[in-house]
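Same chain as my last thread, 423 residues:
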Amino acid sequence: KQWYQRRVRGSYRKATAYALKKIQELQVTVKKDDPAEQRDLLKKCAATSMCSKLIAYNKDYFAEMVVNAVMCLDTYLPLNMIGIKKVTGGSLTDSQLVAGVAFKKTFSYAGFEMQPKTYKSPRVLCLNIELELKAERDNAECRIDNVKDYQDIVDAEWNILYEKLDKMVQSGAKIILSRLPIGDVATQYFADRDVFCAGRVTQEDLNRTVKACGGTILATVNNIREADMGHCELFEEIQIGNERYNKFTGCPKAKTCTLILRGGAEQFIDETERSLHDAIMIVRRAMKNDSVVAGGGAIEMELSKELKSYAKTIHGKEQLLITAYAKALEIIPRQLCDNAGFDATVILNKLRQRHAQGDKWMGMDITSEDIADNFVACVWEPSIVKKNALTAACEACCTILSIDETVKNPNSNYKAPNAMPGM
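reply #2:
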């Protein structure tokens, strides 16, 4: 029969509102005033997101690392303050969390080995200046008639460079970072004065250092102020695998951290990065919204049962529409069964029976190829994720139903009679 679109949209919105209300009643809120309980919740959420990944066997190790990483951040939990670096070699459990900024040592010139590699409470100066002598780029022409004038030109170039270096050293900075190259002359100059320098630092790492340590990225060395420089409690250069890493810890301006991932192959490390990104997003969401529900199809089956009961209290065509909405929620556990290679019919029948008996957190158990209490098994998901999914799906469906007809240009597929083949 012909269903009126307005009635369908109204029924779906009514079913969504009822489902959201039930999620609000079913969700379990974790007390934030108990740090131990909250930390345990976050670890379980992180471990749940890794169960189907390649790092599932090390999920406890990485769950602890992910929770520590997110807890290093400030109140707003900015994702760009978590840096992820990959170092080939070693085992997966050699991965480590640095409570600060860490990036790979950049290209260096002779004299770099003489620079100190550890500083306590140093001043950090971040620049966007090239500190090396090079050929003139422009078509400059200078006509001279004696050797003294030539020497004056050469000395002027050196004096300009040394003047810049003197101003940086006089500012009191012990760590100098630049996005542009720092030449061998400047490297040796800083080494003689116990100053660490690094050129060709990537823009991303330089921005994270500025946000973490404070200060700003300068394009000139004139009038360097104290506010233009950053600070950290400890700077050191450490060996990780076959690479050297510069590490800043104790950054006062912003809380940040860096995950250094190890592994035997680049492809495996890339997959580890993607898995940890999913876990980080789940933990961030759980910290912002401290309410969880059981996953593995448990919440969908409970909502389906509640909606079917709710539909029986409504007369007319809306009853059929809300029943269809409830049946559609069973697609989630059915798809999970198909992905795991289980008999979806048997599993769904068991879930319907247990939910009808009042076991609201019963869901799929992949390890035993059966059903289980997923809340006890710590298969949790933030309730806000389910709310957003239902709301977005309802709005998308209603938007499609709001389209009465489409207009198509009949000449859009017309081809000229003399057109060449392929045109």
